[in-house]
Structures are given as C-alpha cells and as structure tokens.
Amino acid sequence: MTDAVLYELKDRIATITLNRPETRNALSDEVVPALIAQLERAEADPAVSCIILTGAGTSFSSGGNLKEIRAMTQEKKLSVHGIRNWYLDCIQQIPRTMAKLTVPVICAVNGHAIGAGCDLTMMCDIRIASEKAVFAESFMRVGLIPGDGGAWFLPRVIGLSRACEMSYTCDLIDAHKAERWGMVSEVVQHDALLFAARAMAQRIVAHPPIGIRYAKKLLMESQQMPLSAALEMAAGMQATLQNTADHLEAIDAALEKRTPVFKGA
After folding, report:
1. What whole-number distance in Å separates Cα of residue 163 and Cα of residue 156?
2. pLDDT (tens digit, 9 = 90+) per residue, 29-66?
3. In this structure, what is the dihedral angle of CA atoms 210, 211, 212, 218, given to the nearest 10 degrees?
C-alpha cells in the first residue's frame, strides 16, 4: 500500500490517516485511490468493527488539489466530457465507497477541513473535532460547486438552510460553531483528539461485530426508504441476529452478570 494513506489495526479499530501533510492532505490523484483502497480493506476485514479517519499534520484535508484541477483544462486540455468522467471515476468514488461501508466511521477532525475535505467529514457517521478544526464549503471561491457529493451529504447533517449559507458564502466555521450547528458531536482539546476518538470507538467495538455492521446498514438504508420497507428490513436482520452465537452470549453474560466475549459469529 502507498504511504499516502496510512492504516493501523488495533483492538478491532482501524485508524486510517491521510498522510500528505505537505499538501495539507489534499485529495489528489494519488490520495484518492489510496483512501478508497484502505476503506475497502477495513470493510472486507471481519476483525474491524470501527474506523477512525483523520489527517497527518495540521490539517485534516484542504480538499481538491488546485494544481491538478487547473491542469485539467490548462495542460491536459480535457474536454467537458473528459472532466465529467474524471469526477465520476475519481473523486466520486469516495462517496460511493463511504456509502457502501457497513463499518462505523468516526472522523477525528484535527485541523482545516476545506471543500472536498469538509465533505469527506460529512460522509462519516460521527465527527469529533479538535478545538483547532475549521470547516468550509469553499468551492465557490474558485468558481466551482461540490462535485464530490457534498451537496447531498451536507444538508443531511446540518439542514438545508445552513448548508446553503456555507455553500454561498464560503465562510469558515470554527469547531465550536460546528458543534452548535450539529456538524460535530464533540469538541476536544487538540492533543486529546485521537484519545477521544479512540474512546468512542472502544465503546462501539465492545458490542457484537455482526450487530454493529447490521445496525449501521439499517440506519443508513432506512433514510432512503419508506417505513414499511425499513420495518421489513429490520425484521429480517433481527431474525438473523437472534440466531447468532454472539446474541446468545450477550444474553447469557447479562444474566450471569459478567463481561461478554464476542467472536463475530
């Protein structure tokens, strides 16, 4: 694997780190496929029950690489069709991959999350911010719109009116305002960020591995279906889970007043 995106697995928690601090972790043509590969690696591993996504250095992600974006028209002379295909085949593979994950994702926002970097945080299930975190939906500063799915994700997190405000003004939103707006669950001291993210991840992975993935799948897919279909999905999932060894272990442990030992079966 390239070192553009780092991967560490410990205690059922996969920590994925954007690792190009010299570009403030811009989502370049090098970083995007590396990020997708590491996300897919975590999803495919039954030993993973939670992902922490963060950035190396002082920024989470500065968003799209402006030099690469400029080169599309100035050096490469890509046509409208060619640029459209780049979005479909490159940057938009991130939201498609994130949307398929059944593993919960905690975003530990360690600094600036700008443009596509802001949108990437919105694709995660839970966001914890360092007091140094700053968010901006800043595409209009360079005359563009969020081509990465941000217009779909951001209003679902903070509501349409505030998403419009961020998109039209490109204003910087500090960590505490982000917390008030519901963009993040918690703001912590910068040096305590990964500790806080890991503490939350540990509370998640304490539960049965299959159940964790089913819970996320049910929550995510229920947002896009009518109640009747969501109830039908829940019934099928529940029937499956009630036939797992981990479900029986959880009940036995509760009755016997001991800590359960789950095996992902």
Report:
1. 9
2. 999 999 999 999 999 999 999 999 999 999 999 998 88
3. 110
